[in-house]
Amino acid sequence: MRIQIDVAMQYRFTRPNTIFLTIEAAKCAGQTVTYENLYVGDIPINRIAGDSGVGQRVWAQVPWNELSMSYKAQVDVTRQPVALERLSAVPVHLIPAEVAPYLRPSRYCQSDKFGAFVEKRFGNLQGGQKVAAMRSWIEANLTYVPGSSDADTNVLETFAGRQGVCRDYAHLMCTMVRAAQIPARMVAAYSPDIMPPDFHAIAEVWLDGDWHMVDATGMCSADSTAIIAVGRDAYDIAFLDSQVPAEMLYQSVFVTRI
Amino acid sequence: MRIQIDVAMQYRFTRPNTIFLTIEAAKCAGQTVTYENLYVGDIPINRIAGDSGVGQRVWAQVPWNELSMSYKAQVDVTRQPVALERLSAVPVHLIPAEVAPYLRPSRYCQSDKFGAFVEKRFGNLQGGQKVAAMRSWIEANLTYVPGSSDADTNVLETFAGRQGVCRDYAHLMCTMVRAAQIPARMVAAYSPDIMPPDFHAIAEVWLDGDWHMVDATGMCSADSTAIIAVGRDAYDIAFLDSQVPAEMLYQSVFVTRI
Amino acid sequence: MRIQIDVAMQYRFTRPNTIFLTIEAAKCAGQTVTYENLYVGDIPINRIAGDSGVGQRVWAQVPWNELSMSYKAQVDVTRQPVALERLSAVPVHLIPAEVAPYLRPSRYCQSDKFGAFVEKRFGNLQGGQKVAAMRSWIEANLTYVPGSSDADTNVLETFAGRQGVCRDYAHLMCTMVRAAQIPARMVAAYSPDIMPPDFHAIAEVWLDGDWHMVDATGMCSADSTAIIAVGRDAYDIAFLDSQVPAEMLYQSVFVTRI
Amino acid sequence: MRIQIDVAMQYRFTRPNTIFLTIEAAKCAGQTVTYENLYVGDIPINRIAGDSGVGQRVWAQVPWNELSMSYKAQVDVTRQPVALERLSAVPVHLIPAEVAPYLRPSRYCQSDKFGAFVEKRFGNLQGGQKVAAMRSWIEANLTYVPGSSDADTNVLETFAGRQGVCRDYAHLMCTMVRAAQIPARMVAAYSPDIMPPDFHAIAEVWLDGDWHMVDATGMCSADSTAIIAVGRDAYDIAFLDSQVPAEMLYQSVFVTRI
């Protein structure tokens, strides 16, 4: 499926600084970027690979207090949705070096606290069936409430509060899966099915030796979702990380099937 | 029912200091202290009333680095267990001044985070039926695991971790009940049914204009439980609060039916 | 000094509910309310005493999804500023029952974590001199930044972040003072010297057997400040506590010397 | 300098499980392992590279409820201590992909909360001078108190509590450095100068395009310290991570100069 991405944003900073942008669609398995254009004006930028080698990120040196940016792209998404239930967990002793960090807790995902819950609720299931049951549990038990969380909300608060937005759903997904000794990571993505349109966050779980998308919000599907970046949680995949307080003046994210 | 209490403890402090002891059985409705003797040796003590006027507490000026204490008492417990399900919640606008603080969050009980969960899970129930359902939920979903928590564990961790000891059960009970706009407080108590024998913590909920005991661990019953003190959470009812680090050298708590 | 208070607010709720208002100036030592008028429209209200018997609070049953309120008052503030440095701490063993809870940590004030810092930094000072040094430390080390905190910010975050608004200054003040075994409580107040005008939060410390105001922001003075309510931290003195999410449509707080 | 490492440990698990061992000295720049022997008995193990390619880790499938392990090694440490003050920070826009994650917060290091403090206290310094000043600040303001923290203690608590052990010192070091936009990571290490002998944790900071050791406890020096592993914080470098509760039966770590 081909999707078109159209992002525009304008930010004000308290002073000139170097910002870190994570908004370009990744060139990776399952998707081909057929066209793209990042516009940040006439300022110096440096591109580096994203975490775990997925996608790329941009250091942009903003010489003023304000920046207008846009990103337009077309992406052919060729990955197919998989039936999680048919996938197997890899025994932990075969988890390779580059995947092992995704077994562990992170800034917002205190997975070390969830072992007993996950054992009690999902202990009788294995591998992909366990992950699928967790996904269903989250979808059934959380309510999607815009504004109910902020950038500081961690998964302990989400689990108690039973509401959140996509980042919170993905945090809880990653947390439960990690607590069951299955690797899980956070993914920033573009999808045409997010309402209202915005940057989206989902999880990827590592089953049968590969990463597979899981969207606990139920909003988007692997065959129409373009990955931007991966990381251990929301902080690692923030679309904009600045060194000084940033005020959003304008932001729009449109993703459409074409 | 008459119970006999026999407490002995020996603590070492990093330096002389004034400690706060909350170990005497309260003289309050539902129980009569027929005999008691607190021994702290020949040091100055001052008694003050406990929080909300329940029981009494002792400031003890320990002039050395070590203290041996004992407390022996007999208490006639005359209160009867009540069927929570038959009790009604008082409409919040009729909650009096002395009860209102027990609607609010505290150090270990972030009840402000649990509103959505409580509404989803128990929203169709009222008053005592709601409280009884919460008690059953906690008993069914938590596992009693000595050593699984410490003095720093808060209710967000308990709710995710699904295990704990009596303080954690009582914290979650107070938290859920407060999140449903029903007053709840923490109670330190003696009970002959605690295994292994120790200080016990339970909750009290305010229904039909009075406080009623709820023990989410299911271990003890209102008609054999002697209240020591009440407060907003575990910190308020600690049996020993010292100004400097304290090391337990010996401690035993025996409570028996006589 | 006589001050005039003029509050107006309009809130929208997700559904009818009973709210808890803490906006009336207290009738207490140091201030006389010479005129006041609370307007909440034609809805049922119940007044109860505030925590520790200071001031009063209002349960208001809002039958609609929206409420407009106003509060107008004139208060003669007769209390005099005191020189903290001249006051003595009361030995802890003489701290009475009604003051003892203010030695302990609370929802946002984890004073149990600050013992070593307070001992190192202020351990050589006593009583009011210690409190005054803490006040100066906070004023010197924190920056007043509107918007830098929210209702969820706790004192561990404030202490690390070194910025905040009045609630955060007062939280840190209460926390440090409690960590030094001196009682401290949170106070909601009106003051003509707050810029921009708003509800204000300060601390009260218990020295020489009485409560004394301390404003770590340095903005307001005891002789022009009218107390509304006291409690263990910001949650206990919130001007509006509703059972359902509340959206502010309008709010103004004007306090002037007259 | 040549050091000899001699580790012995015995652990009991609640059931057979696969454990993750991070105890072998790394083969990396600055140190040569001239002899080593890991003994875990006759059980299957898999070695994988450590995080960021530093050192190696062992998945060990423990078929029983108990395991005795030993590790003996000799390491020639050839790295020289550097004068931090002479090193420069790399401008953030030149920070490469593999280093960028070490700019960000992690499970125990909420560096996103420390920006204002770091700017106020160290904002006038640059690069290595800034890092050196932070190191001195931590050494001067923290007290090394065995038992004052546990595996759950985060840097907000350490910063308030002003005490801890090596992990807490290193957490605070990493946190402050990251808050100043300089990469920092956690390092597990062996050193002959730790008293009492134990696994040690220090920080590495990325200056002038390379990683440099910083030990805020002041206990150990780069020319006698053997790196085991690196990561974002203590969780990533734990010497033993088991899937079920583990009880230490015996543990000794001896490191000597030879």
Spell out the blueprint of helices and strands.
The structure is a homotetramer of 258-residue chains.
Chain A: E1 2-13, E2 17-21, E3 31-39, E4 45-49, E5 56-62, E6 66-77, H1 115-122, H2 127-141, E7 143-144, H3 155-161, E8 163-164, H4 166-179, E9 184-190, E10 200-207, E11 210-214, E12 226-231, E13 240-241, E14 246-257
Parallel strand pairs in A: 7-8
Antiparallel strand pairs in A: 1-6, 1-14, 2-5, 2-13, 3-6, 4-5, 9-10, 9-12, 10-11
Helix pairs in contact in A: 2-4
Describe this structure in words.
Four copies of one chain form a homotetramer. By secondary structure, chain A is an alpha+beta fold. Chain A is 17% helix and 36% strand. The first copy, chain A, has two domains: 2-78 and 239-257, Immunoglobulin-like (Sandwich), CATH 2.60.40; 84-236, Roll (C8orf32 fold). In chain A, a hairpin with a 2-residue loop joins strand 10 and strand 11 (210-214). In chain A, helix 2 (127-141) packs antiparallel against helix 4. Chains in contact: A-B, A-D, B-C, C-D. The A-D interface holds A 18, 20, 44-46, 48-51, 53, 57, 59-61, 91-97, 100-101, 104-107, 110, 112, 181, 231-232, 235-236, 243 and D 18, 20, 44-46, 48-51, 53, 57, 59-61, 91-97, 100-101, 104-107, 110, 112, 181, 231-232, 235-236, 243. Chains A, B, C, D: This is Transglutaminase family protein.
Main features:
alpha+beta; Immunoglobulin-like; 2 domains; Transglutaminase-like (chains A, B, C, D); four-stranded antiparallel beta sheet; C8orf32 fold; globular; 14 strands; Papain-like_cys_pep_sf (chains A, B, C, D); 258 residues; Transglutaminase family protein (chains A, B, C, D); homotetramer
